[in-house]
Design goal:
By secondary structure, the protein is of the alpha+beta class. Helices cover about 20% and strands about 30% of the residues. The radius of gyration is 22 Å and the shape is elongated.
Length: about 70
């Protein structure tokens, strides 16, 4: 099974490549060896569930606003 991984060569070029899961070295377009590097995960947190970073801050802001206005 092929997966997409990020690689960086010794000349500083960053690129993505489809490789087998156990490949840790690839060849850059400039000819240098490139090492597989850790990349940021690509996902989006759904705000409708309430289980996401910032939910507590949103709850706190809303309650502070309600306290200022005197609404319940």
């Amino acid at each position: 099974m092929l997966k997409v991984y990020d690689f960086v060569c010794s000349n500083g070029h960053h690129f993505e490549e489809f490789v087998s899961g156990n490949a840790t070295i690839s060849r850059c377009g400039c000819g240098a060896d490139a090492k597989r590097v850790l990349s940021a995960p690509a996902f989006h947190l759904d705000g409708s569930s309430g289980h996401f970073p910032g939910a507590a801050m949103k709850w706190e802001r809303e309650h502070e606003r309600l306290a200022k206005t005197g609404d319940s």
